[in-house]
Design goal:
By secondary structure, this protein is α+β, with helices and mostly antiparallel strands. The protein is built from three helices and nine strands; from the N terminus they run ββαββββββαβα.
Length: 148
């Protein structure tokens, strides 16, 4: 069953009326996420977590679509006061990735609405990575993987 709306979390307000498709700065270099598009999710809290782990101060993080807390920060910590949550129409999006909760649009998208959210109100959606998790990521990807 398709959701009625999708959500996109961002660290900033968009310039202009539309999101313009671009290549994402994927947190795990997922092959499903390497093409140009506007990425969104059917899960509001996941979109918020995505914005939080993209905040200034976060140097290395990952996102899960299926397990709370959704974001894991391996290096740094969010250091900004606000994020933005956009509600997007479903029309130009198609499912992408294996979770069934991620969507992508290759066309510009005009948001239906935007909310300015305090990071501190949603910080429970992310956590710091454990030493063991950090060690596994470093072993898998190397010391310079995906750092901002």
């Amino acid at each position: 069953m398709n959701p009625k709306f999708l959500y996109h979390g961002s660290v900033r307000e968009i310039e202009g009326e539309y999101f313009i498709p671009k290549k994402p700065q994927d947190l795990e270099q997922n092959p499903d996420n390497l093409h140009v598009g506007i990425y969104a999710t059917s899960e509001k809290e996941v979109a918020i977590a995505m914005a939080i782990i993209s905040c200034k101060g976060v140097n290395w993080a990952s996102l899960s679509f299926n397990k709370k807390p959704y974001g894991i920060v391996y290096e740094g910590w969010p250091n900004q006061k606000y994020i933005f949550l956009y509600t997007l129409p479903l029309e130009t999006f198609r499912q992408s990735g294996g979770s069934g909760k991620q969507y992508v649009s290759a066309e510009p998208v005009k948001p239906k609405s935007v909310e300015k959210l305090l990071v501190q109100d949603y910080i429970h959606l992310v956590r710091k990575g454990t030493e063991e998790e950090i060690k596994k990521k470093l072993e898998k990807y190397g010391p310079n993987f995906n750092k901002k």
